[in-house]
Structure formats: C-alpha cells, structure tokens
Amino acid sequence: MCGRYAITLPPEAVRAYFAYAETPNFPPRFNIAPTQPIPIVLAEPHSGGERRRFRLVRWGFLPGFVKDPKVFPLIINARAESVAEKPSYRAALKRRRCLVIADGFYEWRKAPGGRGAAGKRPYLVRRVSGEPMGFAGLYETWSDPTGGEIDTACIVTTAANALVGRLHDRMPAIIEPENFSAWLDVDGVDAVKALRLLTPAPDEALELVEVGPLVNRVANDDARVQEALAAPIRAAERATLI
User: Fold this and answer.
1) pLDDT value of residue 119
2) Looking at the 3D structure of the chain, how many domains does it have?
3) CA of 213: how far to CAs of 16, 68, 77, in Å?
C-alpha cells in the first residue's frame, strides 16, 4: 500500500535522474495524497531512440471502460502479482507503463494498544543515498462522452522487503535507474519481462524515519511533515519500533 508520498528534491536534480526532456518547475511536495496531480515519466518513440517525457496526471487510475468516475472505486495502487490478469490494468501494463517520481513515501505502524489514527506512528521511507525513487506506475487517459479527457495513474506495489515489513506488508515497486528503459519500453519489452522488474527494493538501500502526526492531515504540506523524531533506522540495525 502507498497512500502518501513526497517529492522534495530540486527540479534540476530530479530531471537529471530521470532524463526527461522538459524543464518543469515542479514545487516541493511533502505530503502528496490521492486525487492530487502527480508527476510521471513516460517514453515516446523517437528516431534517435527513447525519449522520456514529463507529465502531470491525477493520482487515481481510471480504466478506459469506466462510464462514471463518480461511482468507480478510486485506484491509487495496483498489486504486481495480479496486474497482468485484471481487466482494469492489462492494457496499461502492455502499452502505458510509467515511472512515478518520488523521493520518499509514508507508512504507519500501529503502536501496541493503540486505537484509531492516534494509535498509529508515521514513518518516512527514503533512500539512504538521498536520491529520487522511480515507482513503477501505469497511466491511462480516460475520455468522457463529451470528449473531455483526464490523464490518470496508479502506483504498482509489491511485497515489502524486511525493513519496510516492520511497518506494512506492501511497498511501491521501485525501479532502479538501470531498469528505467526496460520498464518504459512498451514496444521492445513485453509485459512478462516487465513484471520481472517488480521486486522489493534491497533492504540496505532504504531507511525508516519516524515523523510526527502532521503527515496525517493532507492540508499539511511543508518541511515540518518530515521532521525526524529519532535517528533513521536502517537494515543493519535491530532497533525496536514502538
């Protein structure tokens, strides 16, 4: 599950990491929530090879067969294990794969004896290196009967690694830079091969940072959301989460 995430690095650093053509001045976002605009990277055929493009879409995937978005369940995540079989995603997996730009995501751990939101402790999951993350994603342009269009996307999730598993049993499938082209190349890499890229990130690549309850409110979207309450927890450490 991934229900909140962040993009806080400078736009030029993100552009260099994902190598897209545009130069958007996307502002830092510390608490991105479903239905909000999110940046993705997709690939277009080009005479000189792959050309990556930046695009803003709605976080909430709408399959083409949907008649009324108001009564269709909000899809923010798709499970890697079933994405090839479900009608909602099959076509997108074959033809509309993307990378969702991020540099951290949030998960909540239920404290012993805790109840409701107050009984859950939020953690920021980020790279030890401080680099961006490219979540595996699927996108779709949904058209209404009048010709209006909405660009939408979802994040593909996989089983959590041992570190993230301390918080939740799922995590975004993080595509490493050397595999960006394979995930985005829908002409040269079929769905079966692309699915092999959807594996848990190595434990040692990530760290957990306990943060305060500000992240619980969508309206809070500034650097205070990520203020650490304790030192980061890494895979080699056997710190106890309380």
Assistant:
1) 76
2) 1
3) 33, 35, 23
Give the contacts of 111 (CB within 8 A, at least 6 positions apart): 119, 120, 121, 242
Low-confidence ranges of the chain (pLDDT < 70): 47-48, 112-118, 238-242
Say what the pLDDT of residue 215 is. Answer: 97
In 128-240, which ranges are E strands? 133-143, 149-159, 170-172, 174-175, 206-210, 233-234
Q: Which residue has the tokens 């943060």?
A: 211
Report the amino acid identity of residue 177. P
Q: Is the pTM of this model over 0.90?
A: yes
Q: Could you tell me the residue range of the domain that residue 83 belongs to? A: 5-234
| Domain of residue 68, CATH code | 3.90.1680.10
Is residue 190 assigned to a domain?
yes
Q: Helix, strand or coil for residue 116?
A: coil
DSSP 8-class letter at 228: B
Dihedral, CA of residue 128, residue 122, residue 38 and residue 68, to nearest 10: 150
Six-digit token string for 124: 């920021």
Which H or E run includes 73?
none
Residue for token digits 């079929």?
190
Residues 225 and 44: their CA atoms lie apart, in Å, by 36
Q: Nearest-CA neighbor of 80 among 197, 2, 235? A: 197
